[in-house]
Each structure stands twice: as structure tokens, then as C-alpha cells.
């Protein structure tokens, strides 16, 4: 019987062509959030990521019924790869390097899980209308920026709905608050970030301002973080955007505090931006003076220089530019006190034993139930929801109840149950893309994660924050 199983496994292996350990086509095809950086002209933006909508997307991603490949040759695989994990040695198997093959999914790509900004004023960086969910909180208020009284809107009618309150001297826009000034209105004063204005007030003078550059070069690295880049002329832009704040100085510690208090935040970017003192679009005063904003943006991933691609833009004829951009990624210090290591993500309910895979990912096609990518911040809970939903569908289908699976259950193997998953942040050309999940029927040690990415379709693919988790059920 053993020889029959071995021959059967060999035949299956010969019939299955090798393919990538990650489905890069699925990564490129998955919908991405449109909120990839701070909104225009506002002082802060929070609540960008909607965890409830993201969880619903993860549950919906589970296919109707999924089973591991080549389930009829479990014993043979144990002999071939020496990876079979006999009960009760859960999460204790040692595995050799696996062959490369993609772990596919039959479900449609999940939708991006960013809410629609319906209760806040519309901006040119409005978030994607993909789910019904609370809007991100976007705030703005009148500042010290002085708008000449001769500046008036040109060919513009305010179409926002207004409401009145006895405590407010004038009506205000629905969905905002008393005293709110919409920075998108023509000639509206813009939030002032307290930075010095260059003299002369030009783009070249701002870029050459050594005072601003020195603030970035002398900024302290907060405890629990490592600096990843310094003094760039571009800010971070990526799928993993979580929100931002305007600061009163180049204050990396305050930005770190914001990151620490924001779910899923593992990196931040502090930079100085040259902005217009008022909105020049559709305004009779089309050449505003400038203000300098200290900005703190938050990210649900590592923050590397490859993602610093936002060099500014134009608002009307006014050129927005950036200087003094520093990046910081959350880390702890190793026992030797020298090299930084990634922080452990929160452990989802029903799962245990988180293990860092050191930038590599698991590739075990014969025990793989499926994979899925969720563009956005690194969120391990999505993989747990996806795995739980897949298990629930397999149970409902009777996948766990057949005599064949019952036989292998005696040895600690179930071809229909996800007993182990690998969650990691996938990066395209060094820029974070989203959480990639791979589900397995068998548990492995970190040493079995050997795939480290490569080049596909002209893009370089790599991984960060690769973690594995074992079922505790």
C-alpha cells in the first residue's frame, strides 16, 4: 500500500507544472484603496481604515469548498518532504524547502475596505466608495492665514447643504461643525502648520531652506522605532495609509504617539510641505503666499524610501513641494541590544504561536487550501477571518466527515481544515501593497518558509512582516 501511495504522489507531482509561490496576477488585479496619502488642505484625517468592512471582505473571500492538493498521497508527502506533522506534535514539524507552486483561490478578489467620505467635505483625495461605513474624520478650521478681502470666488456656486444652530453666528455645512471652513472652497484659508516661510517666497527658496532641512537631519528617533530614511524631498504614498496629523513643529515623538494609538500603525512619515495660504482654484487671487506645514502621516506597514514618491503637486498655479521627509518603522531591539527586529502582531482569537518567518513565506502546495490578498495595511486578523470562514464552509459541506478524512484525522491530518496560516505584507518594487494570506492543512516551523520573492512581469516582489499562526481549536 505504501508503494502505491508513493507512486501516486510521484504521478501527481509530474502532472503539476511548477508555478510561483505567490499569485502575482491576483495581487495586481485586486482592487486598491484610493486613499493613499493625506487629503488636500485639511489639518488631520483619521478613521481611514474600516476594520469591520475589511473583516466582511475576508469572510466573503472564502471559496465554497476548498481542499488541499493531492490529498490522496498524504503519507507519500510525509516521506518525500519529511514535513508530515503527526498528532499531537502541533506546530512542531520540521520541513525542508518546498517546491514552488502557487496556492490559488477560486473566490473573486475582495473589495477595498475603505469607507466613503460622505459626512465630511469632499476633497480631491476622497476615499473609495466601496462599502457602507462611517466616514473618516477630516478636520479643518480657520487659521492665522490672512486672505485679502479683494479675493473672491470666480464662476463658483456653493452647492453644499447648510444647517443652522443658535450657538453659531452663521450657517455651516451639513456633516461638519460650527465654525468649519471648507478648505476646498475657492479663496478659503488653509490650515497653517506653524512652519517658517522662506524668503523669498518661492519654490526654489523653500527647497534650499537649510533651516527646514536641518530640522529633519537633527530629529530624534523615538524609542521603539528605527529611522528608515532621512531628508528626502518626497513623502510616502502607498495602499497602507491610515491617516495624518498636522504638527506645530518637527516633532517625531508626537507623530510616534499618534502611531502608537492607531490600530495597525507600524510606521510614520514626518515631512514639511509648502502649501498655499488660501485655495487658489476658482479664486480671483490665483497667486497666494505660502505656508509651511509640518505633517505626520501614519502607515500600516514598514516605511521605506521606495514608497516616498509624493513630490508634491499643483493647486491651481501654486506648486506644492516637500522637504525634510523622514521615515520611521516600528521595531524592538534584539537581546544583543543592537539589531532591530519586527514587533509581533496581535494574535487573533482561535489562533496561537505566532512565529516570524524573517521576510520569507511558506510554499507548501500539497497542503495548501487557498490564498487571498487584501490591499491595505498589514492586518493579520483578515487572514484569521478568511481561514475561519473557509473552515466553516468545509465543515458545512461535510468535508471533514468523510471516512477518508476521518482515517487521516487519526494521524493529525485533515485535508479540509486550515490548521495553519501565513500572513505577510507583499511589496511591489519596494512599496507595500497589502496583506497576503496563505492557508495550509498542516503546521510548519519558520525554517520551512524559504520563498523570498523575485521578479515577475517586470516588477520586483518582496515581503515584510511575514508571520505564521497555528490553530488553537
SS strand fraction: 25-35%
Which ranges are low-confidence, i.e. pLDDT below 50, for 5 or more consecutive residues? 1-19, 70-89, 92-102, 104-134, 137-142
pLDDT averaged residue by residue: 80
Number of domain modules:
2
**What would you call the shape?**
elongated
Major β-sheet annotation: 9 strands, antiparallel
As a whole number of angstroms, the C-alpha radius of gyration is 26 Å
What is the helix fraction of residues, given as a range? 10-25%
- How many helices? The count is 9
Protein name: Uu.00g040060.m01.CDS01
Keywords: Signal
Features:
nine-stranded antiparallel beta sheet; disordered N terminus; six-stranded antiparallel beta sheet; 18% helix; 2 domains; 9 helices; 21 strands; alpha+beta; 473 residues
Amino acid at each position: 500500500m505504501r508503494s502505491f501511495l508513493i507512486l501516486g504522489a510521484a504521478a501527481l507531482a509530474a502532472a503539476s507544472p511548477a508555478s510561483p509561490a505567490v499569485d502575482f496576477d491576483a495581487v495586481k488585479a485586486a482592487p486598491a484603496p484610493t486613499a493613499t496619502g493625506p487629503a488636500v488642505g485639511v489639518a488631520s484625517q483619521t478613521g481611514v481604515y474600516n476594520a469591520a468592512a475589511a473583516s466582511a471582505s475576508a469572510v466573503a473571500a472564502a471559496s465554497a469548498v476548498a481542499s488541499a492538493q493531492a490529498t490522496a498521497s498524504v503519507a507519500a508527502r510525509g516521506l518525500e518532504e519529511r514535513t508530515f506533522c503527526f498528532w499531537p506534535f502541533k506546530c512542531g514539524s520540521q520541513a525542508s524547502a518546498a517546491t514552488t507552486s502557487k496556492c490559488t483561490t477560486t473566490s473573486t478578489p475582495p473589495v477595498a475596505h475603505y469607507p466613503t467620505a460622505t459626512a465630511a467635505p469632499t476633497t480631491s483625495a476622497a476615499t473609495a466608495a466601496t462599502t457602507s461605513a462611517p466616514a473618516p474624520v477630516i478636520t479643518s478650521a480657520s487659521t492665522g492665514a490672512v486672505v485679502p478681502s479683494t479675493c473672491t470666488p470666480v464662476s463658483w456656486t456653493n452647492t453644499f447643504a447648510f444647517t443652522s444652530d443658535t450657538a453659531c453666528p452663521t450657517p455651516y455645512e451639513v456633516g461638519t461643525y460650527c465654525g468649519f471652513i471648507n478648505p476646498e472652497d475657492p479663496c478659503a484659508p488653509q490650515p497653517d502648520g506653524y512652519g517658517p516661510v522662506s524668503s523669498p517666497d518661492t519654490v526654489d527658496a523653500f527647497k534650499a531652506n537649510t533651516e527646514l532641512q536641518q530640522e529633519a537631519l537633527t530629529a530624534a528617533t523615538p524609542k521603539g522605532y528605527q529611522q528608515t530614511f532621512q531628508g528626502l524631498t518626497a513623502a510616502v504614498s502607498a495602499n497602507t495609509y491610515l491617516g495624518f496629523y498636522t504638527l506645530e513643529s518637527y516633532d517625531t515623538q508626537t507623530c510616534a504617539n499618534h502611531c502608537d494609538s492607531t490600530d495597525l500603525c507600524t510606521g510614520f512619515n514626518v515631512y514639511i510641505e509648502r502649501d498655499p495660504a488660501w485655495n487658489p482654484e476658482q479664486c480671483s487671487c490665483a497667486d497666494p503666499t505660502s505656508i509651511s506645514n509640518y505633517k505626520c502621516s501614519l502607515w500600516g506597514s514598514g516605511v521605506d524610501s521606495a514608497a516616498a514618491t509624493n513630490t508634491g503637486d499643483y493647486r491651481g498655479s501654486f506648486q506644492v513641494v516637500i522637504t525634510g521627509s523622514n521615515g520611521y518603522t516600528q521595531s524592538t531591539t534584539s537581546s544583543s541590544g543592537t539589531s532591530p527586529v519586527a514587533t509581533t502582531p496581535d494574535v487573533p482569537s482561535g489562533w496561537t504561536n505566532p512565529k516570524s518567518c524573517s521576510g520569507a513565506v511558506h510554499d507548501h502546495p500539497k497542503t495548501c487550501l487557498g490564498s487571498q490578498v487584501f490591499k491595505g495595511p498589514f492586518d493579520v486578523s483578515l487572514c484569521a477571518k478568511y481561514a475561519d470562514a473557509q473552515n466553516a464552509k468545509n465543515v458545512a459541506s461535510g468535508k471533514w466527515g468523510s471516512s477518508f478524512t476521518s482515517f487521516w484525522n487519526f494521524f493529525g491530518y485533515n485535508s479540509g481544515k486550515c490548521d495553519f496560516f501565513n500572513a505577510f505584507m507583499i511589496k511591489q518594487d519596494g512599496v507595500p501593497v497589502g496583506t497576503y494570506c496563505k492557508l495550509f492543512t498542516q503546521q510548519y516551523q519558520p525554517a520551512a518558509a524559504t520563498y523570498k520573492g523575485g521578479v515577475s512581469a517586470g516588477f520586483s516582489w518582496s515581503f515584510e512582516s511575514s508571520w505564521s499562526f497555528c490553530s488553537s481549536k
